[in-house]
Amino acid sequence: MAERLTGAARDAALSELADLGWEATEGRDAIRRNFRFRDFNEAWGWMNRVALIAESMNHHPEWTNVYNRVEVILTTHDAKGLTSLDVDLALRIGKLGQ
Ligand SMILES: C[C@H](O)[C@H](O)[C@H]1CNC2=NC(N)=NC(=O)C2=N1
To answer: What percent of the chain has pLDDT over 90?
Structure first.
């Protein structure tokens, strides 16, 4: 199981991810990012691509879709906090572009 990121490793990860638009959530050890698309079709297509990545990693986002907007929260339930799996998934989501 992936270990929770703490200390300098967590700070470094959060700072790398901040450059990509992710921020730490209030009140829980997780990161969040809002995505906006042209319309629902674009949002849903993107969610499909993320879903395939998530399934291949066996690491799944918490997310909400409202028409062309998607809010994604990443955390590792098994570890009750942020792990390298969340960082990896965030980086892979970033590579999809938007
Ligand atoms: C049983 C299964 O492997 C686990 O529940 C996996 C599935 N996807 C997961 N996704 C996330 N984000 N955190 C987990 O701890 C997790 N665990």
So the answer is: 97
Q: Hey, what are 91's tokens? A: 């980086």
Ligand 1 centroid, distance to 41 Cα (angstroms): 27
CA of 38 to the centre of ligand 1 (A): 30
Cα angle, residue 40 at apex, residues 35 and 42 outer, rounded to 5°: 65
Q: Separation of 79 CA from ligand 1 center, angstroms? A: 9
Task: Give the chain's domains with CATH numbers.
Answer: 7-95 (3.30.1360.20)
Pocket of ligand 1 (CB under 6 A): 58-60, 76-78
E strand map for 1-98: 23-24, 31-36, 62-66, 69-74
pTM > 0.90: yes or no: yes
- State ipTM: 0.95
